[in-house]
Specification:
Length: 341
């Protein structure tokens, strides 16, 4: 089963549902509200951010899973859209906190509209889904409170992970600390997407635990894969090693430090500490040298970790969803195993 082919038929409906939840027209600047309210600026910012695109995995996986078993697709579409919008709200705030000027090849909201207004847009993306879950006609009334609670809890854990990430931004964290941040930042919304899908399908409570474990394995795997993409140069940036240039520690970096000769690790640690403080960023020669060093000592081990996490995800997927829905998880793992962007 090819994941892209499986999810592609739902993309158009998803994009429409995202705009419906935000109550904005699918073109920038259009607003049906009082024109005195900043001339539709909020609508414009929200449309601009959605226009940056993205894989929409958190949104499309629920509808893909439900469609394979002829379940309530419309409810799954709303649920997936709500998870996706919350995820995008965290991205808007993350761009501000990380001082990122570009996202998916386009200027971030804070660069276009200023920090204060971007915060407002991020807040709207975080809150509109919680309201939508309470009033959407396609969401069964009995599921409204459980789904809202699930999404709010996932968001809180994600925020906790972001706080921890920013607190350890300078210098090199240990592997346990980095893994905890990765699980807290990325796993909760994936887990929520799966758990909400199980609720919509009416699956037993026992499946929810497997969904949470599935989200954790996919979330951690997603982050390890992202670090590998940067290392092999397929992350959508100009060159490999962009994370290193920014003084950002990655999973392969920590694995290289655990495996390379002590003298080399001491030299790298000193250079990285200076770079991460912003005082002495890596120049092109240093970047090439240390990127090659991380590849030599950490790439294989990180690849092994990704394969292990995806194997765990397949097992959790079998426990969380019956066939043929579990095949969607297999297709997701097949896709994540490819380091091609």
């Amino acid at each position: 089963m090819d994941l892209d082919a499986l999810l592609r038929p739902h993309v158009g409906d998803l994009e429409r549902r995202l705009h419906e939840i935000l109550d904005i027209a699918p073109w920038a600047g259009a607003s049906a509200r009082d024109p005195a309210l900043a001339d539709g600026l909020l609508d414009t910012m929200l449309a601009a951010h959605l226009d940056t695109g993205g894989k929409r995995l958190r949104a499309l996986l629920p509808v893909g899973l439900v469609a394979t078993v002829d379940g309530p697709v419309d409810a799954a579409l709303t649920w997936g859209a709500c998870v996706e919008l919350v995820h995008n709200g965290t991205l808007v705030h993350d761009d501000i906190q990380d001082d990122d000027a570009m996202r998916r090849g386009k200027a971030t909201l804070w660069k276009r509209y200023g920090v204060a207004q971007a915060i407002n847009a991020g807040n709207a993306l975080l809150t509109a889904p919680l309201r939508a879950l309470q009033v959407a006609p396609n969401v069964p009334e009995a599921l409204r409170a459980p789904l809202s609670s699930l999404l709010a809890g996932a968001l809180f854990t994600t925020i906790r992970g972001q706080v921890a990430d920013l607190a350890q931004h300078a210098g090199l964290p240990d592997a346990d600390a980095m893994a905890a941040v990765y699980r807290a930042k990325t796993a909760p919304l994936f887990g929520a997407a799966f758990e909400g899908t199980a609720l919509i399908l009416g699956d037993p409570v026992a499946a929810l635990g497997a969904c949470a474990q599935l989200g954790e394995a996919i979330g951690m795997g997603f982050q390890v894969r992202d670090d590998l993409l940067d290392l092999v140069g397929t992350k959508g940036r100009d060159t490999a090693g962009a994370d290193l240039r920014e003084g950002k520690a990655t999973w392969p970096t920590l694995l290289a430090l655990a495996r390379a000769p002590v003298a080399e690790t001491a030299e790298f640690t000193a250079a990285f500490t200076r770079a991460s403080s912003g005082d002495h960023p890596f120049d092109d020669v240093q970047l090439t040298r240390w990127t090659d060093w991380i590849r030599q000592h950490g790439l294989g081990a990180a690849r092994d970790d990704l394969d292990r996490l995806l194997a765990e995800a397949r097992g959790h997927g079998e426990r969380a969803f019956a066939r043929p829905a579990a095949a969607v998880i297999d297709a997701l793992c097949d896709r994540l195993a490819l380091l091609d962007g």
